[in-house]
Amino acid sequence: MNVLVWLASILFLLMVVVGGKKGARSFISLFLNFVVVIITVIFMADPNADPIILTLIACTVISCINLFYINEVNSKTITAFISTMITIIILLFFINIVTRISMIQGFGKEEIEELSIFSLYIGVDFVKIGAAVMIMSTIGAITDVAISITSPMREIFYHNPLISRHELFTSGFNIGKDILGTNTNTLFFAFIGGYMGLLIWYEELSYSLGQIINSKIFSAEIISIFCAGIGIGLIIPITSWINAYFLTRKRENNHL
Predict the structure, then answer these.
(1) What is the pLDDT of residues 21-77, one digit of tens each?
(2) How far apart are CA 192 and CA 222, in angstroms?
(3) End-to-end Cα separation, the chain, in angstroms
(4) Is the predicted pLDDT of residue 215 greater than 80, yes or no?
(5) How far apart are CA 247 and CA 158, in angstroms?
(6) Is residue 116 scored above 60 in pLDDT?
(7) How confident is the model at residue 115 (pLDDT cuts 50, 70, 90)?
(8) For the segment 140-175, what is each residue's pLDDT rounded down to a tens digit?
(9) What are the φ/ψ torsions at residue 105 (nearest 5 degrees)?
(10) CA-to-CA distance for 207 and 199, rounded, in angstroms?
(11) Which of 90-99, 164-173, 204-213 has the largest mean confidence?
């Protein structure tokens, strides 16, 4: 417990020194997001609850915390929020279908021994739970990309207020292309890094490459990475177009 307190204190000091008030808000937002996730898990344990609806509500709250609480309410955060919600809704339907087709829901055989003493008949839809897990894993990256595009686009517009909608969209899209590769790789190493011990275990058990690729745990992680990358790929054109539309629309209304 003392280690956790020390680490949290060091992180808080660094975030305040580097980010000032925004850094302090970012630190508080970590705990707020944690509370949202815990509450969502508690509600998901109810057999009558719909994990997809709960995930959508949780993602909405998390997006509000990450965008409006940290960066305040302004045109760039509102646009980023709208873009995030559109992307999440599209991704929810897509991931739900992928989870059903790939049949990666539930537990792999490597986990059965540890869970053998527990009852697995808990009355929840593991297909929807699997989709919810993937969405919750990507929400942070999606909001990050959204605000990373809207912020420089607004600066471009303010420095060149006569820029056309198409040119502004192209600028945002080009910014997104630079972000795409780094964020996708960040997600890859975040997922794989958490399962490095599992990969070592596979090696010790002399698993073949085919057995590793076809194992449910490994497949679920790889599919999560692909779906997260698809989410980042979707948010870039959506955010660029919506932000370009609202900025130029605001200029046109001021001229009327």
Answers:
(1) 888 888 888 889 889 989 988 888 777 878 888 888 998 999 999 888 888 888 888
(2) 8
(3) 61
(4) no
(5) 9
(6) no
(7) low
(8) 888 888 988 998 888 888 888 888 888 889 998 988
(9) -70, 160
(10) 9
(11) 164-173
Backbone angles phi, psi at 192, to 5 degrees: -65, -40
**What is the residue type of 171?**
S
User: Is 111 in contact with 200 (CB distance < 8 Å)?
Assistant: no
Helix (H/G/I), strand (E/B), else coil: 206: coil
Q: What percent of the chain shows pLDDT beyond 70?
A: 85
Q: What is the pTM of this model?
A: 0.81
Question: Which residue in this structure is represented by tokens 């949202």?
Answer: 36
Q: Which two three-digit tokens encode residue 159?
A: 């420095």
Q: Is the dihedral of CA 101, 140, 107, 188 positive or negative?
A: positive
| Six-digit token string for 160 | 């060149």
Q: Calculate the CA 134 to chain-centre distance.
A: 8
How far are the Cα atoms of 78, 140, 172 from residue 72, in angstroms, in the given order?
Answer: 9, 17, 21
Contact 104, 223 (CB under 8 A): yes
For 96, the 3-state DSSP assignment is: helix
Who has greater pLDDT, 116 or 133?
133
H-helix segments, the chain: 2-44, 51-64, 70-71, 75-102, 109-115, 126-159, 165-194, 196-204, 209-214, 216-255
Distance of CA 68 to CAs 106, 170, 207, 220, 240, Å? Answer: 35, 26, 47, 32, 19
Between CA 244 and CA 248, with CA 246 as vertex, the angle to 5 degrees is 65
Which amino acid, 23? G
Euclidean distance between CA atoms 44 and 78, whole angstroms: 29
